[in-house]
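Tokens for chain A. Residues wanted.
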């Protein structure tokens, strides 16, 4: 009887261990398949909307579709082909490739629309116009967007973002690129690229790509 009781106890412990092991594995599997929350651009809540509400961008989509991606006048220490060769040589290091695209267009001098050939307060230029006339912040962002598209980067992983730059209290535009669980910012104010999480002076108003527009809002802080 004593031996049988011990056998039953051992079997009970064995099955309990099995239950614990398989139960633990099930919980781990659930945790692994649970989708990660979306990254909040500059820490904001975003709402998807129709891109047609931004006429300047709709005009860019139309005009860029009718123009050459990279006119013969585009230069980078020689030519756009030299730039592409350098970009391909950095394959496997996406951040270095993005930094190269950022620097490529930042070599063009900043020129406000009102002082450009457009003689208007807010003109969004396409690539051949940027090459011919330079441009301001949104023109750099547009040029970088289409450069990356030409190099095969998916457009649904990029957005042109119009922000309020809080230090200078002015409107500004940058290109946001979603990579490796982060969002990096290509900015005409710096040849270096930074994670959106450290650029606390940027408050996004809206972002756009070829498919959608997003409106951004700061989440309300919880009352203590």
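Reply:
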């Amino acid at each position: 009887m004593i031996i049988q009781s011990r056998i039953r106890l051992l079997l009970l412990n064995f099955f309990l261990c099995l239950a614990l092991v398989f139960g633990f594995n099930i919980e781990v599997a659930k945790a692994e398949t649970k989708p990660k929350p979306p990254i909040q651009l500059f820490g904001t809540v975003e709402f998807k909307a129709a891109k047609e509400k931004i006429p300047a961008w709709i005009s860019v989509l139309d005009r860029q579709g009718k123009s050459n991606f990279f006119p013969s006048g585009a230069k980078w220490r020689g030519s756009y082909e030299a730039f592409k060769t350098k970009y391909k040589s950095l394959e496997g290091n996406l951040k270095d490739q993005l930094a190269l695209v950022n620097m490529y267009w930042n070599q063009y001098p900043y020129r406000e629309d009102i002082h450009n050939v457009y003689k208007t307060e807010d003109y969004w230029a396409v690539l051949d116009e940027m090459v011919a006339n330079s441009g301001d912040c949104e023109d750099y962002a547009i040029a970088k967007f289409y450069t990356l598209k030409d190099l095969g980067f998916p457009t649904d992983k990029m957005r042109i973002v119009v922000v309020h730059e809080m230090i200078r209290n002015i409107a500004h535009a940058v290109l946001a690129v979603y990579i490796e669980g982060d969002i990096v910012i290509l900015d005409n104010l710096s040849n270096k690229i930074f994670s959106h999480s450290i650029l606390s002076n940027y408050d996004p108003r809206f972002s756009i790509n070829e498919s959608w527009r997003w409106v951004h809002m700061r989440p309300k802080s919880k009352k203590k």
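The mean pLDDT is 84. The first helix runs from residue 2 to 33.
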